[in-house]
Amino acid sequence: MIEAIAIAAHPDGSILPVAAQPGARRNAVLGERAGALRVAVTAPPDKGKANAAIQAMLAEALGCKPARIELVSGATSRQKRFLIGGLDPQALRARLAAFEHRSVSQPTEKGDRHPAS
To answer: Where in the sequence is the domain holding 35, given as residue range(s)?
Structure first.
């Protein structure tokens, strides 16, 4: 999944394309879609609430401060681009891969292990 995401180098870090799904039932990183990281948030697409929720989710998933994540395009679109400050594309891929591994190996309430979808 991570290999298919079109991460681009930037002088200040990396550009991460995100396919947003605002107004979802739960907050989740759902994998890859069309070269972008698919992120669902419960926040509505109203006055930047969904963008802020995506920024917070990315910070948590990548293990960095929200201030290092900046929306550079797509404020009113589902297709967004975030600048991840201080992480080159290789480091960003490594953190996404580590997050993907944690997501897949987390047990469900019944104790079963299943891949995040």
So the answer is: 2-105
